[in-house]
Amino acid sequence: MQTKKKSKKFLIILAVLIFVLIAIFFVSMSIGRYFIPVEDVFKFFTFQKIEDTPHRVIEYLRLPRTLLAVLIGCSLAVSGSIYQSTFNNKLVSPDLLGVTSGASVGACLAILVGLSSAMTSVFAFFFGFVAVLLTVLLSKVFKNKSNIILILCGLAVGGLMSSLVGLMKYLADNEMKLAEMTFWLLGDLSKTTINDFWVVLPVTVIGCAVAIILSWRLNIISLGLKESKALGVNYKFTISLLILVATALTAVSVSVCGTIGWVGLVIPNVVRLFVGSNNKKVIPISILLGSIMMVIVDTLARSIAPNEIPLSIITGILGTPVFIFAIFRRRREIQ
User: Fold this and answer.
1) Mean local confidence (pLDDT), 275-302
2) What phi and psi, each to the nearest 5 degrees, are found at residue 190?
3) What distance in Å separates the CA atoms of residue 276 and residue 331, rounded to the nearest whole number?
4) In the CATH hierarchy, which fold is given to the domain comprising 36-330?
5) How far is residue 8's CA from residue 257's CA, in Å, rounded to a whole number?
6) CA pair distance 286, 272, nearest whole angstrom
């Protein structure tokens, strides 16, 4: 009986979040510095004729960035869920192994040498993986299989990458490049196109699908090495695959929109307040809630001020009180 109630609660939450995501998606098409009536938005998606200006605004500006916001939100949330369960620490974020810091180095390097925005994304994605690879290789030197060694190596590599970012900002020869670096580091979707969406889509879909399929193994991995082996799970292979998936999700998100904090940290913790720690439920709900949060953040970024507000500023403002609330609700469990 208790299991049926929990399953029913999960399905209700899932249905509500799907409805909310669809509603917020349509609202985001309407809100901005150029207001578009909701009826025109519905006409656009039902292939009815509307005026040329709102049609162009939706097709070339708002639709690509809102679709990307959905993908980035679910990618970061799922990545955070994987890392938190893999390392059995609910306070870690997708940047645990230095992927975000590495991506920042790649992006700043591309901006410094004057490459295009497309090449900036390529450099960010590549250097994100390089940073994680460096973290893993460094941890092998210590010949210690403890996850704590991997985490500490991630902190070391992240610190190195942050220093390199500071160096490149110092070497920027004009204010334009420095401003571009700074804005990228704070997160931005204003320059994205529908091509970015098609690049991110397969990585996000495959990554999230693998995370859902392996969610039961993720539950076992979170118990530790001995328990995993006792239950017949290949601990080393599974944890390597999960880290690869989380890294790919984070790297592809950061490569197109820059650094975005709090989403991967806050969303999984909020989800666990309502559905518990079972990753079979945490990951699907995280996908939806992460998407909802990023669509709201992107809508606010382009509508509450005359100029575009960097995404990380808004995620920090929204994420901090939510995270404090999550800690308060789980204070007894933490104790």
Assistant:
1) 92
2) -70, -25
3) 14
4) ABC transporter involved in vitamin B12 uptake, BtuC (1.10.3470)
5) 37
6) 9
Contacts 24+ apart (CB under 8 A), 14-22: 14/284, 14/285, 14/288, 17/285, 17/288, 17/289, 17/292, 18/288, 20/292, 21/70, 21/288, 21/291, 21/292, 21/295
**Which residue is listed with tokens 């500023």?**
313
pLDDT above 70: residue 323: yes
Identify which of 59, 35, 61 has the alpha carbon closest to the alpha carbon of residue 45.
59
To 10 degrees, the CA torsion angle through 79, 85, 91, 95?
-30
Per-residue model confidence (pLDDT) at position 20: 96
> Tokens standing for 177?
């490049």
pLDDT band at 86 (very low <50, low <70, confident <90, very high): confident
Sequence ranges of the domains in the chain: 36-330
pLDDT in tens, 126-136: 999 999 999 98
215-234 per-position pLDDT tens digit: 988 888 888 777 877 878 88
End-to-end CA distance of the chain: give it in Å, rounded.
30
pTM for the model: 0.91
With H, G, I as helix, E, B as strand and everything else as coil, classify residue 28.
helix
* DSSP codes of every residue in 118-179: HHHHHHHHHHHHHHHHHHHHHHHHTT---HHHHHHHHHHHHHHHHHHHHHHHHH--SHHHHH
